Amino acid sequence: DIKKRAAEMDEHTRKLDREKAAKEARARGKTATQEYIEKKLKAEAEEAADDESDDSDMPDLEEPEPSQPANDADELSDDSDMPDLDEPEAPAENGDDELSDDSDMPDLEEPEGPVVPQGDPDLVDEPDEYPPLPQPPAKVTEGAETEAATLLSEAKPLVGSEPEKAIELLMKSLALDPRGTRCLTLLAKAHVKLKAPKAAIQAATGALLRNPDSKEGYKWRGKAYAMLGQFSEANVDLGKAQSIDFDDQIYDWL
Asked: pTM of this prediction?
């Protein structure tokens, strides 16, 4: 019991020592904080006093005196020293001179015949309509059919070299047997060679009435439209021909 009591006394003593040490530490911390605040306030007060002394040392700025009013007489004298600007003289109007200049211009002669635009030799002006194609007979005999085929064979190689001769043979063939499309497409081609686009359109349209899928009919009618300057119609027909069967010549035209 004596040892236990002694241990309790020692523990109580240590507790009192810790509390005392804590109080002293808090007192020291509070004192240090107060000293720091006091020093900071003192320094701020000194800086404010220095600023006031600096402002008092600045010299007073004098207000500028109002400028003297301008002297109108002096300004007028300055303007009088400026040289007078001469006004440009108006150009003399001479109507007779202008008429004489116009009379020197050469008279423009009106071109004879249809005007063909530069760079497009195929563009033509064809004022006359061609007579209608021959009407088919009431009945095509076997002999007429054979003779028509013979005339077509003779005309075919002449379309490019002798289109006029080819047209003569083809018209005879049509009179005997107008049912086929080959004779009409060759006739349209021959008319294009002779720069007769309206006749070519007539023949090609006849071929397309008989066979709406005729590539040659669209090809030569499209070329004929282009020769007349009807380029919208030409593009439509040439495009249809290309869609049926590709053609290098049509590709070049387009």
From this structure: 0.50
